[in-house]
Amino acid sequence: MRQTTLRIVAVGAALATTILTTSALPTMALAQERVVHVYNWSDYIDESILEDFTKETGIKVVYDVFDNNEIVETKLLAGGSGYDVVVPTGPFLARQISAGVFQKLDKSKLPNLSNMWPQVMERLAKYDPGNQFAVNYMWGTTGIGYNVDKVKAALGDVPIDSWDVLFKPENAKKLKACGINILDASDETFAIAMNYLGRNADSKASADLVAGGEVFRKIRPYVKSFNSSAYIDELANGDTCITIGWSGDILQAKKRAVEAKNGVKVKYVIPKEGTYMWFDNLAIPADAKHVEEAHAFINYLMKPEVIAKASNFVQYANGNLASQKFIDESVAKNPSVYPNEATLGKLFTISPYDPKAQRVLNREWTSIKTGK
Amino acid sequence: MAEISAPTHRSPARWLVVAIPYIWLVLFFAAPFFIILKISLSDTAIAMPPYTPVFQGFGDIGSFFGGLDLDNYSFLAEDPLYLDAYLSSLRIAFISTLLLLLIGYPMALAMARAPSTIRPTLMMLVILPFWTSFLIRVYAWIGILKPEGLLTLLLQTLHILGPDDQVQIYRTDWAVFIGIVYSYLPFMVLPLYAALEKMDGTLLEAASDLGCPPWKAFWRITFPLSLPGVIAGSMICFIPITGEFVIPDLLGGASTLMIGKTLWTEFFGNRDWPLASAVAVLLLLALVVPIVIFQNQQRKVT
To answer: Of chain A residues 42-81, which have a CB less than 8 A from chain B?
Structure first.
């Protein structure tokens, strides 16, 4: 869920090379040593889970992270990525399945599937018909994260419960001085804007996309940055006062601000107009070299206590029904993480973009971001 | 003459020495370039790899070549975004190179005129930043320039800025220029220093004996003699800055439009490898012109 392209290209390439070379050698030397190469979102697991997995199974985990779906997709489409488990988001998963990137899961090796949440699996089936290729890892929403005091100072004592706070130019203008960030994830931001306008969030028609873009064009002069990873820290240390962001990221920013004792109060809200609901899912590339180990890893993550530990740490909801009794009350009872039925009804999903709509979308987005 | 030179010409060792740079170029320049050129003539597809046609062997070579076309190039011409991005990159590279010259030249001159005992130390100081990772140095600039960063703190302590004012440099073109000039400075200083250091000091003495004021001596003697260094330094900086991606992405704002970023969006955001390749091929062509000028200049010098 996060961007800042370059860091990944440069560091990722260097890191990947190091990991591949350093890990390839011992693997060849000791053919019986078992490893699994995992490629997951940054800040998205309690790392002690990886150590516990190695202790329990003897399988070593080589863990690598990314901060946007595009990087993952490009690596997977190029082939020979060297990863055994990757974690793409719904629409990306769907497209990658149709490109032949993934292999079908061997469900006989995944007995913990019985712990999964049927409702989440049903929603995931939109991207992966029949749930053949992927298992949900975490899911969440894209909403508004804000600095309680700074926004109050700028807007006065008004309730923050609607996209109007950001999308009305007169509000955005008042918030300019304290810092507005917009998530750099065009598919999600456009869906949210189209939904805000009362149009179909899943529309791929150029007219709708352009109308959605217009929402951002109007507030562009007041936006400080478009990013999807640095905003966590910027929100936590007060550099940014309001952002469109992913639920867990904003709750992590809240946690970091509390830890830093800097007096910054961060809050996350799902606006009343509804918002995008996303799913990040575990899947095994078709050319994975450690298929057996990949299944073992996915099965391990479906253990209720294990995935509950991850949710407690990253503050995202997971797709594992049996895990809910192990999740801390502050997470499980938090309506921003596990929304109630009424809110769930307003959340929407989107299907993948075809190449033509994707081009219109990204062209609009580039033009909005550069202000041209 | 012919009897002597013929055997050396045929000696395998000599062939090898000549062949190594050519093999290097073919493997690491020509081959990748032709792969990119080929992809730029293809069409996108939802597949692995995400374009068609893919070379399947010589049996289908007819349909393989039939699937190639120039559509991507004509698309680049239709949308002003790409031209804007090219021009904006060239503008940023040009201004940066000018700034580098303005800062680098006095530095190189001071180094060349310094007593020979401390020259190695000065040289060391120029190279020293390379001992830290480039990325860490750019991140350090974020720490300095951001609104709640070190620069704001310093100016507030000095009462130049009020307690509620903040420096607004991070995520603007200014930050990009600062980052680029900082990162590329050694590449400008070193060729200039090499050119200035070789200069014959007696020429300046002669000028001064003949009544030429120092500033005039600089423009009529020092600067023309250092021209090869100026051109080498400018080219070494200008060319990579044009395609620069890291610095504008980390320090620049959303409105900093550069071709490197456009390329990124095509490749990753749109998954349009063919169009991204076409952008890359054109970028290469845009850079060939300065390289050719550079080579001509070098030939004149030697």
So the answer is: 68, 70-71, 73-74, 76-79
CA distance B176 to B246: 10
CB contact under 8 A, A5 and B44: no
Query: A200 vs A209, A350, B28, B264, CA distance in Å?
Result: 10, 10, 49, 29
Q: Is the pLDDT of residue A4 over 50?
A: no
pLDDT for residue B105: 96
Contact A363 B257 (CB under 8 A): no
A217 touches chain B (CB under 8 A): no
State whether A79 and B48 contact (CB < 8 Å). yes
Among candidate residues A193, A216, A218, the one with its CA nearest the CA of residue A274: A193
Q: How many Å apart are CA B226 and CA B196, to the nearest integer?
A: 6
pTM: 0.79
- ipTM score for this prediction: 0.74
Residue from B46, B247, B261 to probe the interface with A (highest A Cβ count within 10 Å): B46
Are A99 and B50 a contacting pair at CB < 8 A? yes
Domain regions of chain B by residue span = 81-301
Domains in chain A: ranges and CATH = 5-139+278-339 (3.40.190.10), 141-276+350-370 (3.40.190.10)
* Model confidence pLDDT, tens digit, residues A343-371: 988 999 998 888 888 888 988 998 898 88
Cβ pair B272, A355 in contact under 8 A: yes
Instruction: Check CB contact under 8 Å for A225 and B254.
Output: yes
**Candidates 3.30.300.30, 1.10.8.80, 1.10.3720.10, 3.40.980.10; correct CATH number of B81-301?**
1.10.3720.10
- pLDDT for residue B138 is more than 70: yes
